[in-house]
Amino acid sequence: MASTPPHRNTLDAATSPTHSSGQFDESGSLASGSSSGQATSSTHADAISGLLSNDPKRTGFNPQTAWWINYFHILTGKVTPEGQFHYREWRYRVHEERDCKRCEEWRDYLFKYSPVVTFMRDKITALNGRLDESNVRCVRCPTRLTETGDVVRRGGGFSPFYGIEICANEIRNRGHLEDTIAHEMVHAYDLLRWKVDFVGEKSLKQAACTEIRASMLSGECRWTRNFFTYNNWNLTQQFQHCVRQRAVLSMRSRSRVKDDVHAVKLVNEVWDSCFRDTRPFDDIYR
């Protein structure tokens, strides 16, 4: 990442319009997918359209039935993968208020007591930016269904116009939220400090670099999280593998990235320089 003088960018919280995933999610809105320049056939489009509406007879999930009965049906294999998708989305809608309130309480705590969040907030402020409780929003994020039927979930996103958006329905605990906020704050820092094109509209290499740095510095790839959350017992090169993998996944969601091979190539091209760059930290903090 080439160093350029800091520029003024406030990242102020504006009164935002009704949220659409396009503001924060480079990969598109619900069921939009990527067509690779080819029109989707009407038969395929009809099939996807059908997946977006639940048919209890087909899926085995009935929202009119008590949640614990549906859950028991899932455990006993009576609900199809499609039905499980609709069950999860239904539960997210039912608990939206609870999830957002809990997320906001954790967010406020982190901006007061989290060393990494307060450190990054101060560094962003020093670059004439602002990220605090007022422009870190907790919302429910609908799961995205691609044209191939793949389910895509996300934990949050960053917009230079609106700040940070946290997907309250995907946050497991306060530690997970801390990692997510720290990840997005690294993107904000890189944007302010180097004018990084983190969306990748002009430079996909810059986007790959900030994804490497965000995964490396946020703490999401520390050994304890991988061990207790993902049961990853690998002790050799585990951290590097995690950072690389998460950067590739983030790059894959960008519309200008053709496929997995392209995403891996972009990450590999900037890996050596960006993985060594721990600014604004002196070293990898978490």
Automatic annotation (TrEMBL):
GO terms for biological process: mitochondrial protein processing; mitochondrial proton-transporting ATP synthase complex assembly. Residues 1-42 are annotated as: Disordered. It holds the Pfam family Peptidase_M76. The keyword Oxidoreductase does not apply. It is found in: Mitochondrion inner membrane. Coiled coil: none annotated. Residues 27-42 have a biased composition (Low complexity). It is a peripheral membrane protein. Residues 1-26 have a biased composition (Polar residues). Keywords: Hydrolase, Membrane, Metal-binding, Metalloprotease, Mitochondrion, Mitochondrion inner membrane, Protease. One of its GO terms (molecular function) is metal ion binding. One of its GO terms (cellular component) is mitochondrial inner membrane. Its EC number is 3.4.24.-. InterPro entries: Peptidase_M76_ATP23. Belongs to the peptidase M76 family. Has a dual role in the assembly of mitochondrial ATPase. Acts as a protease that removes N-terminal residues of mitochondrial ATPase CF(0) subunit 6 at the intermembrane space side. Also involved in the correct assembly of the membrane-embedded ATPase CF(0) particle, probably mediating association of subunit 6 with the subunit 9 ring. This is Mitochondrial inner membrane protease ATP23. It comes from Zalerion maritima.
